[in-house]
Amino acid sequence: MSIKFTAEDLSRLDDFRLERFHELYAQTLVGCRLELKFDALLIHCSEPWCVDQLMEELDRMVNAVSLVLGTKYLSICYAAEEVYRTKTRLHRQQCMSH
Q1: What totals of helices (H) and strands (E) does the chain contain, helices first?
Q2: Can you give the pLDDT at residue 93?
Q3: Residue at 80 is within a domain
Q4: Taxonomically, which superkingdom (predicted)?
Q5: CATH number at residue 30
Q6: How do 73-78 and 81-87 pair as beta strands?
Q7: Following CA atoms 41, 45, 51, 56 in sequence, which dihedral angle do they give, to the nearest 10 degrees?
Q8: What is the largest CA-CA distance in the chain?
Q9: Does any domain span residue 96?
Q10: Residue spans of alpha helices (H) in 1-98
C-alpha cells in the first residue's frame, strides 16, 4: 500500500522541518527568516551581525541543513541579495550492507 501526500501535506512537512531546524539554531537564527525554495534553504538576515553570526556556525549548520531539511544548498541573504551559498552535501557516501 503506497501513501499519497497532498500538496497541503507536503507543505506541512516542510513547515515542521523548518520549525525543527529553527529550534536547533534558535539563538543563531535570531532576526532571520527561513525559506525553502527549490532545493535550497534561504536564510534571510535582517541585520549584518546576523550574517556574521551565521558564518561562525556555518560548518555545523551545513550538516544540519542536509540532515533535517534534505536540501542541497544553503544560502544566506541580506538586503534581498544572496551573500553566501554553499552545497550541503559535500561528501556523499553509499550505504553498504554487510
Answers
A1: 3, 4
A2: 54
A3: yes
A4: Bacteria
A5: 3.30.300
A6: antiparallel
A7: -50
A8: 50
A9: no
A10: 7-24, 48-56, 58-64
Looking from the CA of 81 toward its CB, the CA atoms found within 13 Å total 4
In angstroms, the Cα distances linking 67 to 70, 83, 98 are 6, 23, 24
As to burial, measured by CB atoms within 10 angstroms (0-12 exposed, 13-18 middle, 19+ buried), residue 68 is middle
Does residue 59 lie within any of the structural domains? yes
Q: For residue 36, is it within any domain? A: yes
Residues of the chain short of pLDDT 70, as ranges, are 90-98
How far is it, in rounded angstroms, from Cα 20 to Cα 22?
Answer: 5
Cell of 9: 501535506
Split into its structural domains, the chain has a count of 1
CA distance 60 to 25: 10
> What's the pLDDT at 94?
55
